[in-house]
Design goal:
about 40% helix, about 15% strand, 5 helices, alpha/beta
Length: about 140
């Protein structure tokens, strides 16, 4: 499965760099930074990522629901059974997706797994309260 991170500006590229720092180079991981200066149009960047191989599965992970990146991808992949879209990407979700074995799964099985992965990624959002420590005199 090809995993394509897509965001406004550099978020997708930064997330890809972070993932590859942790996991090493990932040949199936790609990043699209939309609306950067002198970039190709978002639609062209998306089209360039999609090959004519009808057996290949594609997962697009976007930054925010309702944003132009998300809605553009949703329109472009509408009715394509081998393409999936998840919004609200975060590092735990990307790591989980990349370590999952989904190449031999049906489209329904992939969709079900993605629902599970999203639920797990949501659990990673937590408020961490750090108690103020009193300065010690040395």
């Amino acid at each position: 499965m090809q995993v394509i991170l897509a965001s406004h500006s550099q978020m997708a590229k930064g997330l890809k760099q972070t993932v590859e720092l942790i996991m090493g180079k990932q040949s199936n991981l790609h990043a699209i930074a939309a609306y950067d200066d002198e970039q190709e149009s978002l639609k062209k960047q998306i089209a360039d990522q999609i090959t004519s191989n009808s057996n290949e599965k594609y997962l697009f992970l976007t930054d925010i629901i309702g944003g132009s990146v998300n809605t553009t991808i949703a329109q472009m992949i509408d009715d394509k059974e081998n393409m999936f879209l998840v919004t609200g990407m975060n590092l735990p979700l990307v790591l989980t997706v990349l370590t999952a074995k989904m190449d031999n799964c049906s489209s329904d099985q992939v969709a079900n797994k993605l629902e599970e992965f999203c639920e797990e990624a949501r659990k990673e959002l937590k408020v961490v309260r750090v108690a103020a420590q009193e300065a010690e005199d040395f």
